[in-house]
Amino acid sequence: MKGILFALMGGAFITLQGVANSRISQSVGTWQAATITQFTGFITAFLILVLIRDGNLQRFKQVKPIYLSGGAFAAVVIFSNVKAIQQIGVTLTISALLIAQLCLTFIIDRYGWFGMAKQKLALPQYLGIGMMIAGVIILGV
């Protein structure tokens, strides 16, 4: 149950972040908005880390360098979301974002990329993606 709540919270906050970034970028620029967002995110995460003291900083050495590039991915996410929201609106942007996420997660699950266990995908999963794509097409019409 906690996982579902965290997923719902993450979904809500990615939408709020996209809208806020779009508004920031109208004043200062898109990459500037991404920079501000990344910086405030770092400060927030660092403060929470200091307050909660969760995890073990010594274990950073065990993380593969490629996985440390997640922040760079976030910069592209922010830029892309800002531009999409400005051009097609919040609803269509988040809908397309979800479809892109699901399609890539299907590939990751299918082939076991990034050390993930391979998952069998069946007709219901493919139908679900198809229905979501149809829904986005209907939203965009």
From TrEMBL:
Coiled coil (UniProt feature): none
UniProt KW keywords: Membrane, Transmembrane, Transmembrane helix
Family annotation (Pfam families): DMT_YdcZ
Transmembrane segments: 32-52, 64-82, 88-109, 121-140
A GO cellular-component term linked to this record: plasma membrane
Protein known as: DMT family transporter
Species per Swiss-Prot/TrEMBL record: Cohnella cholangitidis
